[in-house]
Structure of Carbohydrate ABC transporter ATP-binding protein, CUT1 family:
Amino acid sequence: MASVTLERLNKTFGSTHIIKDVDLKVGDGEFVVFVGPSGCGKSTLLRLIAGLESISDGELRIADDVVNDLPPRERGVGMVFQSYALYPHMTVYENMAFGLKLAKMANETVDERVMATARILQLEELLHRKPKELSGGQRQRVAMGRAMAREPRILLFDEPLSNLDASLRVQMRNEIARLHHRLGSTMIYVTHDQVEAMTLADKIVVLRDGRIEQVGSPQTLYQQPATRFVAGFIGSPTMNFMPAELLGGNEEGCRVQAPGLGELSLPQDASGQGPGAELSLGVRPEHLRLAEAEGDNRFEIVNVEYLGNEVYVYLEPREGDTLLIHRSEAPSDWQVGQDVALRVDVEHTHLFDASDRALAIATQRHAA
Ligand SMILES: Nc1ncnc2c1ncn2[C@@H]1O[C@H](COP(=O)(O)OP(=O)(O)OP(=O)(O)O)[C@@H](O)[C@H]1O
Ligand SMILES: [Mg+2]
């Protein structure tokens, strides 16, 4: 097991700059998840760590060793890809043993390693089968087994579950989490799936256009996104954003005017902003409440989605076309076409300045 350190890591393909000055420390035994929009560089970053791509600039260390120029198989890294590409003509056992034999390991050791891995992944009964005789989840486990059998110090996963159906994903997610608890190995995991990111990660890294936008625990990213981008990216359904004009404020809080919502007293320190500043107010769907329409506070319900354990109500302001989402756990009588007023849990609001940076929560108010 080992830590991974990225220092000002850069990758260019020809003249295209893909990974830009990435600094990151992945602790020994930590589970780190990379998220970000398609094309932001998640797979590239993983491949740089694995040694499947060359590093253009910067330093990559595993434990205390600089590994920039070390070939992949000497890095002690195992990688599981989205397309798990098992060898079709080989049995499960042979698939897992193949890499070990290539590494010229003694037959006895190969057998020990494969059997131990099969036990952990509950593949013992399936060792004689060919991939085509396995379910998707079983194949995925073999792909993981193939990476694990080499006992890598670090396991890398690139969207390993995206080919599986919803229920299998839940099952495999659970297995990966338990595997991590049991093995305690350092894991870096790329996913598009919000739930996977939130549930598996000790630490989430949000990437945007080849740069790190924010790193933090799932809770930190959800509750204190540093930018509007992170706020909108983490959480599903996504955070609501509304324009808000700053009326005034100091270190202890501020007042804003938001269309339809009127004047709001908020806990953010807006002392760095001038009155009249155009801010963006962010409110998560669970922090909006609905009430009887009154005065200008009038939003039309345009859709209601009942999901069994929760309800999403979609709203549009009478003026303007921002679509807002309210989420509640209780069934409601709200009807499409009805006008309602919106209330905001001010303690759970977010404010972003013109450059999309979050304004800090005022310390005094926060402590009170
Ligand atoms: N070998 C290559 N040559 C040139 N450009 C590349 C190469 N590999 C990746 N890229 C580019 O680098 C960028 C990042 O790609 P990458 O595969 O890392 O994205 P990603 O975040 O994994 O996206 P996705 O979520 O779609 O898998 C993309 O714009 C891609 O086109
Ligand atoms: Mg990718």
Observations:
- The chain has two domains: 4-232, 237-367.
- Residues 166-183 form the longest helix (18 residues).
